[in-house]
Amino acid sequence: MSKLSIVSELWQFLRERKKWWLMPIVIFLVLIGGLLIITQGSALAPFIYALF
Known about the structure:
- This protein is mainly alpha-helical.
- It contains three helices and no strands.
- It has helices at 3-17, 23-38, 45-51.
- The longest helix has 16 residues, at 23-38.
- It starts with a helix and ends with a helix.
């Protein structure tokens, strides 16, 4: 199962069941995950982890 199919399945779920209120939560989690991945090897990592 590819990552793209997971995204398309999530999109289908949101569209069919009209769960649009979940979209900001999903976007926020993706942004935080991306931020943690990007700063993992940098000097900013201790400051980012201190926020959480």
